[in-house]
Amino acid sequence: MKRYFIYLHISHFNSLFYRCNRLVLIGHTANKQLATKLDKEEIEKVVGEPITDFSISSGAKKGDNVAGTLLALKVTTASGKELNLVYKGFPSHDPKQKQFVVQFGIFRTETSMYEKIFPRLKELLELRKTVKNKELPIVKYISGFNDDQNDYVCLEDMRPEGYIMQDKFNSLTLAEVSLYETPGDRGTPSQLKFIDFQLSRRGNIFEDLGYFFWTSTTPEFRSQHLDQMLSFYAKSFENTMDQLDFPKPEGFSRGYVIDKFYQGMHSAYLYMPFALSLQMCDLVEAKEEQAQNGTTKKEDEKNNQNGSQSGPPAIDFDAMMKEEKRMMMIRMKTSPRALQRLEDLTREAVELNLLV
């Protein structure tokens, strides 16, 4: 039996259970750099009770795209509980990444989701007698902290329970795309948990649908199953609204979902060079290439200054876009798979007349 973690961008609470993508966040910090800060006293603050033993190991593979540091903790409490935890820590050793994290408030966003939004959503489900499953498909939140210097989020690690992450280089299968909670034989996906809410927002559901299908499925999959999956989404959305006893949006139907999706495909395509390069690159190779190219002394001094100041620094969007364009080219250069996926997607876009 396979159980899956899904990385999710939320742009509409009503579609929480259905939309997902496998984009993680930018950057990588060596786990050993933060491990020394997590002593017994700090871990007791994180779990909220005395502990007798703990161990720390890497929570991510080398090259994974993680904003900050991801650690796996095994903790034994004084009361005898054995805890498997994931600790997402602030990127205090990378000025550029720290600037990104602070400017966009991604740790603050994630703690707000767990401490404010999900409890209110849970209350809503409890009030609705028509809702069959009142459990949110998220992992247990242990604790979090925000001061733009020592931010962290600590969650239950579900990997010992059989949950896995799909390989970011492979397309999702039909069973995985249509999965919410489907019992099956060993090796068949049966349950999922949504994780990583650092870029959560409320917005247009069709932006996320386009993003998901362009990044996480192949042209072959879309040619065979896209309309079927959009129909599945429309039905799931309607079922959710019915269970919550909410009126459906005026004009909402299967045909409406399919039409609006195709209308937005051009905009979704324009975002793909950034998204695919970020999702499919080997971040270690990309950073090595970046180091070889180097940045100017003036840029490094500016980044270090921004990284050391308290509070969110001013956002220089022109400089940010220039740097992101440069990094996008590096990521594509160091990832033949990302480049091939973009070439395949471009051929598909031409066939669909999206570039006319």
TrEMBL record:
Compositionally biased residues, Basic and acidic residues: 291-303
Alphabetized SMART domains for the sequence: CHK (SM00587)
Residue segments, region Disordered: 291-315
Protein name according to UniProt: Tyrosine phenol-lyase
Residues annotated as domain CHK kinase-like: 66-243
GO molecular function, a single term: lyase activity
The UniProt record lists the keyword Cell division: no
Keywords: Lyase
Keyword Acetylation attached: no
Upper classification of the organism: Eukaryota, Metazoa, Ecdysozoa, Arthropoda, Hexapoda
